[in-house]
């Protein structure tokens, strides 16, 4: 029985070309980076001086030398929330819950990462927020923190944070103080005081309203009295007699049966006699 032999004629150097092709594909895949929406990137030059601070890369597809690394961070507006223990002006410890909106400066992303590291929120933003909150809250009493000063405190904290971060390549847009937690006894005392003040204001309002109503009635009564006085002074006997005659004549014109006696009444006024 004859042995069938299959002669595989593989091109010389074929294995080497395959290896080169696979290596090229791997190298290409490692040299391409896609930066997503709202993100930015900076190059870390492994064989150079580290972070390249001269250029920031935006969204899209980028080719990077294989020995370099693209560091990608969010550059859109972001928020961070925290609870801080701070002291009021009289030394009382209060807890402040707040949220801050910030965003890195895209064109200075390399400088930000080079000076503060990739975790720049923890290294830069958190300390700035805490310092600003302590500085601002320390100017107010617990009652002011709990009630009427909330919007003023937010603006002052924002101003403080922006001042601290000036020139640090990180922009803070807004601060929101969501809650101020006081010890239960202090909070109860403040709420009781505010309730009493509200009741007092309501009582004063009712008194003022009653006083105005009394003044209005007094003025109205005085006006009516003056009008009656003027009217009485103008009504002479002759005028009254004429008015009586006019009224009698109008009455006599009605269809009801009656008898009119002229000059029989007091002061010569007519007397009307009828069956109605």
Automatic annotation (TrEMBL):
<keyword id="KW-0812">Transmembrane</keyword>
<feature type="transmembrane region" description="Helical">
    <location>
        <begin position="12"/>
        <end position="29"/>
    </location>
</feature>
<protein>
    <submittedName>
        <fullName>Peptidase</fullName>
    </submittedName>
</protein>
<keyword id="KW-0472">Membrane</keyword>
<dbReference type="InterPro" id="IPR000163">
    <property type="entry name" value="Prohibitin"/>
</dbReference>
<dbReference type="InterPro" id="IPR036013">
    <property type="entry name" value="Band_7/SPFH_dom_sf"/>
</dbReference>
<feature type="domain" description="Band 7">
    <location>
        <begin position="30"/>
        <end position="194"/>
    </location>
</feature>
<dbReference type="InterPro" id="IPR001107">
    <property type="entry name" value="Band_7"/>
</dbReference>
<dbReference type="Pfam" id="PF01145">
    <property type="entry name" value="Band_7"/>
</dbReference>
<keyword id="KW-1133">Transmembrane helix</keyword>
<dbReference type="GO" id="GO:0016020">
    <property type="term" value="C:membrane"/>
</dbReference>
